[in-house]
Every structure is written in structure tokens, then in C-alpha cells.
Give the backbone structure.
Amino acid sequence: METEKIRALVAAADTGSLSAAASKLGYSPSGISRMISQLESQTGYPLLVRHHNGVIPSDSCQILLPALRQLLHDEDQILQMSASISGAVVGQITIGTSFPSSYWRLSEYVARFGKLHPGVTIRMKGNYSSALLRELNDHKLDFCLISKREGSHRWIPLFKDEVSALVQSGSSLASMKRIPVTMYETQPFIEIYPGADIDNNRVFEHYGITPNTTYTTYDIRANMAMVSAGLGIGMCNKTDSSETVEGVTLLPLDPPQIIEAGIACLGDLSPAGKAFLEFVLKSWEKEDGVYSQDRGSSSRKK
């Protein structure tokens, strides 16, 4: 199989659209369709299922995708290693963060790194921690800034964060020093990323709490706006309290909920990825003084 055809297939599977895959890779939709058809002729079975909303991977394709992603990752590694032999740092990096407040800091790092290594293109995306970790393991990300999660990835701790309550300013709850976690069983709760493995739900699971979910959202600012309107109480990481909107008060939980945040990466990080990761860590240490090189470790649960 030619890797460019494989890249077309993976792009179509990821985007769910031949047109989106074409736009991403710089081909026409018909060109993407032709390459995938050629792959299907080689394998002898359908790789994509076409429907009116786009395309989805076939069951057979789902089995192949992890190996195909690894193949593309290895090709990128070889190209970057070849360039590094001559002293050049080139390639494309994709990083993720589960902390919206970190966009500004990471963007500054991207700008500074880009001046040193103009041959490197860096993309940045956001999602919740467990979702980003899945993308990391699928080689869709080079590394990600997340809350600590179990796994065999390398873990580099950076700072402590606190899961906190969001209440309407001026309400009776806003005058409390702490919000008991048990209060979420009775108070109307505005859930973000419903059902997902996020820090909030880990708190509830730890204490055996079933929250009184009244509203749901997938956006932290929408969540805060609903709290501000008096529709219920929310929960978020204190690190992102800079995103707090007017009319919302951030309070600690009782008992306190402290988590560890840091960077997750795999052992086969590309040369460009390694260079940017080292740049991020050194910059972070210089600004906050919290990172030391010997702190990186496996985060496998013991």
C-alpha cells in the first residue's frame, strides 16, 4: 500500500467526509475517492461505508486503523529523523490541552519556537483529558496538557489544580466558604461533557454521588453563563477560573479535590515533537520553576 493512499483513508475516517479529507490533504474529493477505491481493490473489501452524511470506517477498516496510523507515524518519524541528521528540525506537530486558560501560554510558546524552527508547523486543539489521551494513543497528537490519567504513557507533572464549585454570585451558596460535594445530589447541577470521563465525574464517582443533573452543555463558558442565570451550580478546574464570567463565584469543594496536571506523551515522539516538548518544559520551568527533567515517568496505575 502507498502511504499517501493510506493517509487519504485515515483522513476520511477521521473527518467523516471525503471533501474534508480532500481539503486537509490538498486533493480534490474525486482524487481522495479514487485513492480509497484503489486501496479497497487491493484489500478486497470495503474500507469506508458511504451514507448521506458522509463516510464512516467499515468494520474491517476499524481493525486496520491502529496499524495504519502507526505506519503513517513511522513514516513521519523517518522523514524528520532524516532532516535532523543535517541539523534541520522540520515536520508537523499536533498538541492538545484540556485547560482553556493554557491557550495563551501555549500560543506564546508556539510563536517563539516557530522563530527558532520555521520548518515546523504546530497545530493545537482542545478537549477533555481522557479524550485527548485517546487521541495521543492513536498518534493523532504528539503530546497533551491534561489532568493525570492512568496508562502506559510518559507522564510529566507540571502543577497542582483544584476541582471547584461554580455558584451564582449573590446567592445564598455564594456566602459559603466551601461547597460540600454531597450538595450536588440535591442542588440543580449543570453538567459539562455529560457522561464523559472528566475530573468532575471522577469526584462524583469517588464519593458515590449521583448529581441532580438539570442541564447539560459541552462548553465551559456556556456552563458558567447558565450558572450566572441561576439555573443551577457547576463545577470546573480552578486553573480555568480566569474564564469565569460575570455573576459566577468560584468556591472550593468540601472535602478539597486536588488533582495533578501535566504533559502526557508516548515514547516514540518525533524529532520535531521532542524539540518542541523540551522547549515547552524549559520555558515552563523558567516561568514557574516547577519542572525538573527527572520528574517524567510512566503513569501506569499501580
Observations:
- Confidence is low (pLDDT under 50) at residues 290-302.
